[in-house]
Amino acid sequence: MKTSYELSATGRYPVPPPEGWIAEDLDRLAGLPRHTELIDGVLVFRSPQRKFHARTLRLLENSILRQLPDDLDVFREFSVVLDGRNRPEPDVLVIPLAAEPGHDETSLRAEDVILAVEVVSPDSEARDRETKPKKYAAAGIVHFWRVEQGPDGLPVVYVYELDPALKAYTPTGIHHNTLKLDVPFPLSIDLTAINQRRP
What we know:
The chain has 199 residues and is of the alpha+beta class. Helices cover 18% and strands 32% of the residues. It is globular and about 45 Å long. The model is unreliable at 1-9 (pLDDT under 50).
């Protein structure tokens, strides 16, 4: 189905069709801000990153890359099609190398995602704590981490695993200072290293 759109009276925002946007529209709508997500058929524009968010992403991506099994890969802020009306962009993703998208592809399939990570920002608290985890679980993504800034300014990682019978996440741990896990692969991350410039 081909979707068209018109600009609002100010010429700045796309006006949604009556039934809302679909996942494929993110590839067709010209002029969208970078990292635009689709949640329940609604375009979500992300606010500029804060220092905590940017440095946490760098720490997680670099640490995971160093310890990742050879048959897996890491993507950062890459779109995932969960269903026809939901195409979020998790902050960090782990997928099998065999599932890597082609050079011109702009999204991953939910069934290929092994781990999705969201780093919570002030503007995304409800989405990252409630909306997205429910949608990731419903789409069958087995591992999910939510990362929040602790009172000391360091990341706190909340780790979840999918209960396939309930299609919901079960918490498996809250990690301060060090994130040490055996699944989905052996991993140890020094969370106090958030402010180091080099890995």
